[in-house]
Amino acid sequence: MGKTIIQKIFENHSDSKAEVGEIIDIIIDARIARDFGGANVVKNLEENNLGVDDPSKTFFTFDCNPSGCDQKYAANQHICRLYARKHGIKVYDINKGIGTHIAIDKILVEPGGTLVSTDSHANILGSIGAFGQGMGDRDIAYAWANGRIWFKVPPTIKIILEGKPSNLATPKDVVLAMLKHFGANGLLGYAVEMYGDYVDNLSLDGRITMASMATEMGAIIMLFPVNEKVNAFYEKLGRRISPIYADEDANYEDTVKIDIEGLKPLISLPGHPEDVALVEEVEGTIVDSGFMGSCTNGRIEDMRLAAEILRGRRIAPGRVLKIVPSTDDIWRRCLEEGLIDVFKEAGALIGSAGCAGCAAGQIGQTGRGEVEISTGNRNFPGKQGLGDIYLASPATVAATLITGFITTADKIDSPPKPVVVQDKPLFHSRKEVRGVDKPLKVEGRAWVIKRDNIDTDMIFHNRYLSITDTKEMGQYTFDNLKGYEDFAKKVKPGDIVIVGKNFGCGSSRQQAVDCFKSLGIAAIIAESFGAIYERNAVNSGLPILVAEDIINKIDDGDIISIDFLTGLIFDKTKNRKFYAKPFSKVQLEIYKRGGLLEQ
């Protein structure tokens, strides 16, 4: 039986065969820590007396707060700079841009390579047929110290895009169509390979747009076989590459065909990236602001497309459009090609290269009640402030900001709509660390939260990301999850959290795990976990288990016991037994040690 792309990449970076479901050690070609997680990586290394395996393959990228305008971010960045000087590590500082884009453009990794980063969109490397994975602070520290890290070999789904979209549709619209098809967890735990005429002719920038949203479908990575355009990109840089392709008889978990013939522009409704509709279905919705950038749509093609629409026009009165190229090189190209002049003449604000709206540290945030249309990849509640965020393509964002209401590029001759005048007031009134022992059986009170896709912003909001002291984290647990804002005040040490599917989807932040450890939570049982969250929890020694349909079997407040070795869940209140998947050998070993980095 032949091999898929990810199996071949893994085998080229391991001493083991990459059989689906097996856990093997993978050599990592590029190991990256960003500004929000970098200080914690340093902390983990120094507290555990660990060194750096290969400084030439190790990097810091400061893309979350490229202005260094937040005191805690600035402090963390300085910690990273000092550590980098000491160990000879390359720093792509606040003037360089998004780390994953730098990794591609500066060839830190080439097709067939491997990369890890404290960025949940590190799987953007799938755009060049390479493997990238977002990880938490402990994972990255381990990779820095050892040059390799464990992975479970995922099954692969083959996706074939059939047909040709309309002239108004962009790669962002195509990936939104995929998100509508699969939902937030339809590809959970899978690698994906992309095929079809549309894919064959897709530029590198378009592939980056699509690959960056694999995380929003739960996928490990979305891999694009290298085409002529990607080859040309490397030839221009003077690099000869050796792409990896799947075998003709590769074994796929499934083959899915998606019809994109005549596809029209799409948009994600506020709160859920997977809640996708036709732009025409919400046309006329008045907006307050727009954002264009992020790792999804901050490339030069995105900038050119927006400039083409904005040229000779002005942003609607009372609105603001924030534009942030993904890297400094792209920013300079915008300057050289006159695109910056076009943006400024239209009335847009141009920011320094970086993540911008996706991170709390730069432009793109919103106020309470603000309606924004964004080219980003996430619009979780609170992700970009207190407003309502729509996700769309650069073309739709540009057209919308000219008219002041959601529309497409072929309808921008309509006169701008005035801003909405609000009559209501603009202002509204608005633990101690408890360690967990390492028993193989626990008992506690159940907190049953009957919801799927609880993301990391709901668990531990990004406004607290600069916190590095675990004992401070517990108080903020679930304070962005509606109905559970007071969870941290009511929970007791030893309690057990039970949730639905895809728990912990979204960002790679370690704090979304450590906050539960801070509160003394005995275990978390879910119907499934987000891929990065699952790793973070296992590596932190936080007991997590997967059990089918568990939220409909146990009631809130029941007293339950769990056996980690057998997976037995006994509801003492109801005198009923259920089963979860027991700890794997790797999980058990890490749990007993107290964490991945514990000796």
Concise overview:
The protein is 27% helix and 18% strand. It folds into three domains: 255 residues, Aconitase, domain 3, CATH 3.30.499; 146 residues, Aconitase, domain 3, CATH 3.30.499.10; 153 residues, Aconitase, domain 4 (Alpha-Beta Barrel).
In terms of topology, how is this protein built?
Elements: H1 5-12, E1 23-27, E2 30-34, H2 35-47, E3 58-61, H3 71-87, E4 90-92, H4 99-105, E5 114-117, E6 131-134, H5 137-146, E7 148-152, E8 156-162, H6 171-182, E9 191-195, H7 197-200, H8 204-211, E10 221-223, H9 228-236, E11 254-259, E12 266-268, E13 276-278, E14 289-292, H10 300-310, E15 320-323, H11 328-336, H12 339-346, E16 349-350, E17 371-374, E18 388-391, H13 394-403, E19 441-449, H14 456-459, H15 487-490, E20 496-499, H16 511-519, E21 523-526, H17 531-540, E22 544-546, E23 559-563, E24 568-571, E25 576-579, H18 585-593
Parallel strand pairs: 2-3, 2-5, 3-4, 5-6, 8-9, 8-11, 9-10, 14-15, 14-17, 15-16, 17-18, 19-20, 20-21, 21-22
Antiparallel strand pairs: 1-7, 12-13, 19-23, 23-24, 24-25
Helix pairs in contact: 2-3, 2-5, 6-8, 10-12, 10-13
